[in-house]
Specification:
The protein is mostly helical. The chain contains four helices and no strands.
């Protein structure tokens, strides 16, 4: 999955587009515990990616999340 695809999913989850940068800290864009669960569910159900909320919560930045989903 590309960064643009991930960005579109994050926008659909209500994260402002301008906040979604590779260097942005995960929690600063709204991916707290609940946001991480929501993103993981969308990635699993809609994109078929085996990504857990624990992996998303362990990511420090949006770039780390992008690398995680790109590897899947």
């Amino acid at each position: 999955m590309s960064f643009d695809e991930l960005k579109n999913i994050m926008i659909a989850l209500g994260i402002p587009e301008l906040d979604i940068r590779l260097d942005a800290p995960r929690e600063d864009v709204g991916l707290d515990s609940i946001g991480a669960v929501e993103l993981a569910l969308v990635l699993r159900r809609e994109k078929g990616l085996a990504v857990t909320e624990e992996e998303i919560k362990a990511a420090a930045t949006v770039g780390d999340i992008a690398a995680l989903v790109a590897a899947r």
